[in-house]
Amino acid sequence: MQGIFQALNFSGWTFLFQVINLLVVMGVLYILLYKPLGKILADREAKIEGNLKDAAAAKEKAEQMLTEYQQQLQGARQEAQAILDRANRMAEETRAEIVARAKEEASRALEQARAEIEGEKSKALAAIRSEAATLAVLAAGKVLERTLTPDDQERLAREALAEVERLQ
């Protein structure tokens, strides 16, 4: 084996110094690069975890706000429906009141028209009676002036009827 080491120019001390040199370089790199890099990675991991926690909290808060808004919206819808129901009820009451008032006014107008018709009818009947009495007096006066024959009686009756029809 000695021959192989000589052919390769292998020296134990050189190998030992190279191993020590490698260990020193690895130690320096560990201290200068690995520790700061590990710290940077740990800080970054902590920051990412913090961001994830913040995002989860924000999501939870957003869901809570969404639930609250949906409840408020439902409340607003119920309130709007209640307002519409109240408005419909008031409109129905107002309509019923207007209809009742219109019926009452129509009834009053009908009664007033009937009373006026009855008054006019009474006046017309009184006028007819008055005219009939006047005609009867005139006819009697004519009868007294002369003696009536059956033809005269028929003629006077036709004249009296014609006079009554003319007055109506």
Automatic annotation (TrEMBL):
InterPro entries: ATP_synth_B-like_membr_sf, ATP_synth_b/b'su_bac/chlpt, ATP_synth_F0_bsu_bac, ATP_synthase_B_chain
Keywords for this protein: ATP synthesis, Cell membrane, CF(0), Coiled coil, Hydrogen ion transport, Ion transport, Membrane, Transmembrane, Transmembrane helix, Transport
CDD domains: ATP-synt_Fo_b
Ranges in a coiled coil: 45-123
Subcellular location: Cell membrane; Endomembrane system
Topology with respect to the bilayer: Single-pass membrane protein
Residues annotated as transmembrane: 12-34
An annotated Gene Ontology molecular function: proton-transporting ATPase activity, rotational mechanism
GO CC term, one of those recorded: endomembrane system
Keyword hit for Cell membrane: yes
Quaternary structure (record): F-type ATPases have 2 components, F(1) - the catalytic core - and F(0) - the membrane proton channel. F(1) has five subunits: alpha(3), beta(3), gamma(1), delta(1), epsilon(1). F(0) has three main subunits: a(1), b(2) and c(10-14). The alpha and beta chains form an alternating ring which encloses part of the gamma chain. F(1) is attached to F(0) by a central stalk formed by the gamma and epsilon chains, while a peripheral stalk is formed by the delta and b chains.
Family membership noted in the UniProt record: Belongs to the ATPase B chain family.
Function description: F(1)F(0) ATP synthase produces ATP from ADP in the presence of a proton or sodium gradient. F-type ATPases consist of two structural domains, F(1) containing the extramembraneous catalytic core and F(0) containing the membrane proton channel, linked together by a central stalk and a peripheral stalk. During catalysis, ATP synthesis in the catalytic domain of F(1) is coupled via a rotary mechanism of the central stalk subunits to proton translocation. Component of the F(0) channel, it forms part of the peripheral stalk, linking F(1) to F(0).
Name of protein: ATP synthase subunit b
The organism of origin for this protein: Moorella mulderi DSM 14980
Phylogenetic lineage: Bacteria, Bacillati, Bacillota, Clostridia, Neomoorellales
